[in-house]
Write a structure and sequence with these properties.
Length: 345
């Protein structure tokens, strides 16, 4: 299926932007969630030229987070509630923690070989989680049950991934100078665990409005991956309410749309210059892989894939992430998509 560039550019530029209130999510989590274990290791979305650079893996090794559209949406809902309900904790006489650790004192767990990494605990109501997931204030029992099932499914999944991050080196007498070094983090565990239903005492001790919220209250223990360096390395992504509105309904919000939203939001954050709008090129095959369409494209369904890519582009345009997209022909059969990323400032 050939692309009529004039019609497409006009179609994309006609969409009306919607109000997009952002949710802070961890950049390290976002990077590994964008990985596609079936795709080549040199995909453009990993070429960030800094600590987020994709690490080569052995052929056949499953890397990244294989998340569905509903699971990604649930993670964003959890981040939104984490942002709203967290409070600063004083731990062992240390300075107030900059990390977001939830509304209960964090617990220590093993992570990357270290048995004493702090993991957030978040006490919340299932109804609040469902409201954030659906983007609605009025929810049904069916929707609450659906969110509970997604949460249970996500809890039972284990993931394996590797990423690199900068680690601050404190100056020690006669040893090291202050500065930064790169370290490799290896993660093979669950993203979250449902600890139990909260006790009346735990609920009573909270200085929040959760005590007045109806329905079951649960405690989520979140993986350190979700909050790793969240105080300084984060990405603003749209709320579920904004994404659903941009897609034209929850049933129309596809995994490809979710991935392009994450990818273009990440593009906003990663830049070595201050020129706007940022111009990010993607070759068509690379973009298809990044959005999970490689298998469909191999079945000679490129026309269908291109239509789905355009639908995803319209969504990020409505969300005010992308200013415009230029489509350039590279040869007889392939195209390059040039994304113009908008400035939030």
């Amino acid at each position: 299926m050939a692309i009529n560039k004039e019609i497409i550019v006009e179609r994309i530029n006609k969409v009306e932007p919607i109000i997009n209130r952002g949710v802070k999510i961890g950049a390290h989590f976002l990077n590994v969630s964008l990985r596609n274990s079936k795709a080549p290791n040199d995909l453009a979305q990993f070429n960030f030229k800094n600590e987020y650079e994709h690490l080569p893996t052995k052929e056949g090794t499953l890397e990244g987070l294989d998340l569905s559209s509903s699971e990604l949406r649930l993670i964003v809902a959890i981040y939104e509630l984490l942002q709203e309900k967290s409070k600063t904790h004083l731990i062992d006489g240390e300075k107030p923690q900059k990390y977001i650790y939830g509304n209960l004192p964090p617990v220590e767990r093993r992570y990357n070989g270290n048995p004493f990494v702090k993991a957030p605990l978040l006490l919340l109501s299932v109804s609040d989680l469902t409201k954030s997931y659906t983007g609605k204030n009025r929810i049904s029992g069916k929707e609450t049950k659906n969110v509970s099932e997604i949460l249970e499914h996500l809890e039972n999944k284990k993931f394996k991934t590797t990423y690199r991050r900068k680690n601050t080196i404190e100056k020690l007498k006669g040893k090291k100078s202050a500065g930064e070094e790169m370290e490799t983090i290896k993660f093979h565990d669950r993203l979250l665990t449902v600890k139990a239903e909260a006790t009346p005492q735990q609920i009573e001790n909270l200085e929040t409005d959760i005590k007045q919220t109806r329905g079951a209250k649960i405690i989520l223990e979140l993986s350190p991956l979700l909050v790793d360096q969240l105080d300084k390395i984060f990405v603003n992504v749209p709320t579920n309410k904004a994404k659903i509105e941009a897609a034209g309904g929850a049933a129309k919000l596809t995994l490809a749309m979710e991935k392009l939203i994450s990818l273009t939001s990440r593009m906003k954050t990663n830049s070595e210059n201050n020129s706007w709008p940022k111009q990010i090129p993607y070759f068509e095959n690379t973009l298809m892989d990044a959005l999970g369409f490689s298998e469909l494209a191999q079945k000679r369904k490129k026309g269908k894939v291109r239509e789905k890519i355009l639908e995803a582009i319209e969504v990020v345009k409505k969300l005010n992430i992308v200013e415009k997209v230029e489509i350039q022909k590279t040869d007889k059969r392939n195209y390059k998509y040039l994304f113009f990323i908008k400035n939030d400032k």
